[in-house]
Structures are given as structure tokens and as C-alpha cells.
Amino acid sequence: MRVVIAGAGSVGRSIARELAANTHQVLLVDKDPAAMKMSSVPQAEWLLADSCETSSLAEAQLETADVVVAATGDDKANLVTALLAKTEYGVPRTVARVNNPKNEWMFDEAWGVDVAVSTPRLMTALVEEAVTVGDLVRMFTFQRGQAAMVELTLPGHSPLVSSRVGDVGWPPETVLVAIIRSGRPIAPGPDDTLEAADELLLLTVAESEAELQALLAPRH
């Protein structure tokens, strides 16, 4: 997956490090020469340019990006970057950082924003979750303990499609917390049936993640 991140400050670099560590191709774009701290994320590509300029986005080859993350400290710049990415270059998914909560109402599809968030780790998870079906994505880890919230979008080939929740043999220390279907949350009961494209939110431990992946979406 190719991800272009506008804003090479602490937030942008944090996102870039996590995505690069997960083997994604990352390009960091910033107009401030002082932000070009290439040694901080050596796995990423870097571009000194203004993401609010179409010429800069053309240089970044935005038409080849799977996701654009607008992570600058300026809400106006993030909105313009997202809008240009979506309308001028047809980027499939845009994720934008909201710096001022008063501006949240603007961060919507009208401005080309698919997902508006403010926490680096959550942004990273949402970027991956947005374009991944059948892969387990760790949303966050509880600091006091070994449990983590993970997400997986159930693919059509999953053997659990049409299964009752109560009949599933979940791995040890794993709990199905919620099902998101057609954008709406469902509190799962034992008689609920799993469907293809369901987004499953689960609490689990690191030792059970591989077994959970194999259960929900085995590799061919």
C-alpha cells in the first residue's frame, strides 16, 4: 500500500514509522525545510513541497497513492490537501488530522475527508483498516495489561460467513465486542449470524491473534 503523508511533524513521523514498520510504502511531504528529518524515518521517502499546491501533489505522484493522510498542524492545510487528493487525483481514501475540535464539522466528504481523527496510533489503524479486508488490524493496546482491540472485515471466503456467533469456537481470551454492519453497530448475541463484509471488533491477547486470523480469514 502506498501512503502519502502531508506534514512531517511529530504526528506525521509517528504515523510514517508505524506504517513503514508494517511494510507499507510511505512518502512524507512538508514545506518546511526544518521538518526534513530524514534520519527519523529512514524507510520513508521525503519531499520538500507544499501539499496545498497541485504542482507539489503531482510531484508526489498522488495518482498512485492508495491513501493520503493530511497530518499537518494546520486544519486549513489538511482540508485543502484532502480536497485536492480526492477531487484532483481520485485518491481512494483520505484521512485527516483535526487540530481544533471546533473545526470538526468541516472534516467531511464535502471537503474530501473520508476519516477525521486526531491520535497518531488511531490514524494508523484506520488507514490500514480502511483498505484491508481479511487482515487483522490492531486498533490499540491497553496500557495496563496484555489485551488489545483488533478489527477484521470478514471476507466473502471466510468459513464463518453464515455462522451463528454462539457456535464459533473463539481462541482463548478472545471476546467479540461488536459487529459493524452497513455502518451501524450491533451488540452481538449468540443467535446473531455473521455476514460477509461485517467489521468485527474483538478484544484478544497477542498469543491468540494468529489463531484468530486463521479462524476468521484463513490464507489460501
TrEMBL record:
The keyword Transport applies. The lineage of its organism: Bacteria, Bacillati, Actinomycetota, Actinomycetes, Kineosporiales. Coiled coil: none annotated. InterPro entries: K_uptake_TrkA, NAD(P)-bd_dom_sf, RCK_C, RCK_C_sf, RCK_N, Trk_Ktr_HKT_K-transport. This is Trk system potassium uptake protein TrkA. Residues 137-218 form the RCK C-terminal domain. Keywords: Ion transport, NAD, Potassium, Potassium transport, Transport. GO terms for molecular function: potassium ion transmembrane transporter activity. Residues 1-117 form the RCK N-terminal domain. Gene3D superfamilies: NAD(P)-binding Rossmann-like Domain, Regulator of K+ conductance, C-terminal domain. It comes from the Bacteria. GO terms for cellular component: plasma membrane. The keyword NAD applies. It holds the Pfam family TrkA_C.
